[in-house]
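TICKET #2291
ISSUE: user wants both folds in one file
ATTACHMENT 1:
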Amino acid sequence: MEKQYAEKNKRMAIAMDNGIPDRVPILSIIDNWAFSYSGYSIDEIFEDDEKHLAAFDKVARDFYWDSMFTVTTTRPINYISALGGGAYKAKGTLQIESGSILSMDAEEYPDLAEDPYKFLLEVIAPRKYELFRKPYSEEKYQEYCDAVDHYFAFRNVGARSAQALREKYGVPVSRGAVFFHPLDMILDYLRDFQGTMFDIKRKPKQIREVCDAMLPMVIEMVEGAYPEPVEGKYIFNPMHLPEFISARDFEKVYWPSYKKLMDYFTDKGYNILCYYERSYAHLFEFLQDLPKNKIVGLFEDDDLRIVKEKLGDMMCFAGGMKTFDLNYSSKQVCLDQAKSLIDDLAGDGGYIFTTDRIPHSANDANPENLRAVNEFVRDYGVYK
């Protein structure tokens, strides 16, 4: 297993540097689909760590992978619930509660820019979490300690899962840390969609200032979780806002601080996997200026053949296998699609085979189709 682990890790590392490995790596970006596939509900896995572990064990055992994107669910719901709030609730799937994100007024950008840590802790946390609204007492202190225990229990599940998959199946977990651009954090946690879109038009200068002020916090969060670059690992960067704004607005409010983050991390030797949700064709000109051969672009809706033409000389790219077809089309249609992806995209390296979207729900993949395409790519995607 250790030999397989090293081989798979090396395969991913070469591809991420836009090189040519021995064959096309196959990356799992499966998330909550693991639970429905294993017959568990979201509520069950938050109540039973062993079921949480068993679900990803089954995914690693039943399908071929060169790397896992994650080996736990997305959010530590027990921790958030213990704090008495948060946007995420279980209820059969991890959904955002209506109205739970808007927690900052548009006039508070200067306060956020002045001291992001202080503002988030002293102003936002009490608005979001009941526990932070209580006056100090020994009882409150103990409740907070209990909440932190839930958080570290969640982290422990991830560590145990990664170790088990390494020992039993020789499969590495390639994600070393996660970072969100400051404006994505504002969208996801502070101003909601409508507020953020209004702010981009009305307060672009304040948004730029806030994004720059929050950069040290983003860097500290990454380096605290993933202090030094490791071969075969990447920083995961989900991007939630750019697909909804014009190239002009992107250049004003998002790109300056985003470029600083990308330069900082790649200068230190990190690889970054950017999840370009929906279409990014209107932003290809900017992506061409990212650090060369240190970025992996996971594209949802963009035609990867065009991506290869526009960006193939400067980044590795991933995706292509449509989750819609994996669930609703025949096995042969899926195999034909996988063959076309390898034939058209993998010739000169820098390609990682995976789905075009993160599989969350039971309807995101038919297991038989997923197993068939992974085994096909494993055998067919060999560099001669």
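ATTACHMENT 2:
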Amino acid sequence: MRTKLKHRWSVGHNYLTGITFGRWMRLLAQNGFRISPAYLHRAAFITAASLPNSAFAAIEKLRFGSAIEAAQISRPPLFILGHWRSGTTHLHDLLACDRAQFQFANTYRVVNPLTFLTTETVAARLFSWLVPPKRPMDNMALSLASPQEDEFAPLLMSLCSLYLGISFPARQDHYERQLSFRGADPAEVAAWKHALLTFCKKLSLRDDRALLLKSPPHTARIRTLLEIFPEARFVHIHRDPYRVFQSQRHFFDTAGWYTYLQRPDPAAIDDGILTRHETMYDAYFDDLPLIPEGRFCELRFDALEADPVGQIATVYDRLGLDGFDRMRPDLVAYLDGLRGYEKNRFPELDAPTRAVVASRWRRSFETWGYPT
């Protein structure tokens, strides 16, 4: 029995619509031009979008190339770390309330990293229909102006990211190495580092506020991030591993379907979730001692949910950030706007699955005190 392909005809909510033609051809070549017939219309849409992207990227390089190269990032960025579905987006949104201190990458910019300086003002209005008003996996508000994870930007610039393994599952093992960069080609790592730095310079070209960056894969890349930004600060959030597993399953059964270019194997989803968690936290615990004292803070999602104002105050205190009293009214106003929001509800995991999660993610349960 063949798997039903959800959202098969959708062309929106796909990060590859921001790619340039040359990079798109290179990505297709790396994957042997293997596109499942069911998704040929998506590939055609991406191809059509890549042509104007290339033209605007050339214009942007001509207009801003020298300025971007010379740009300085004067304030250390703050990176939000944590496994997917652990509350990183909620934490990102809360800290982004401090508009006096932080700037962030929004949805438009992360999927148009090579053109946003030239196109955002007009295109963000014209193409807002490509983005659903709520995230498919959890009903959180979404728009092209929303704070967004930065993973997509260096992906589109360097073609390096484990997320490409979702679009091209036939080569997922290759892209998985780009989660922590352990065992990855040094040239790939160098290209990704250059892409992230260039993207951050572009964000800082007209804005000298500190960068507030969030990407779950960064959790496995602390040493790489410190090589780029030696004075960076980090805040890590964790959540009940059982809940994380269930929610990540739900992600692949909702948002994941919008990005496939090859038929997925649903039977491989669970093991992929388990393995990525292990890879991520092997790297995380290995790299954690590299962060200098006073530049790291850790939160529990349940504590943030119970007392968001108090927990954000703790982040400011532990990281030596100023301005909490100034941003507090904006934080409270944002939280007031979330009243009535309902989280996803999932049935209990069956006993065999709970046992596998408890066994393979034991260190996370034990380190953070979650009951198995």
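RESOLUTION: both attachments delivered.
EXTRA DETAIL ON ATTACHMENT 2: The two ends are 35 Å apart (CA to CA).
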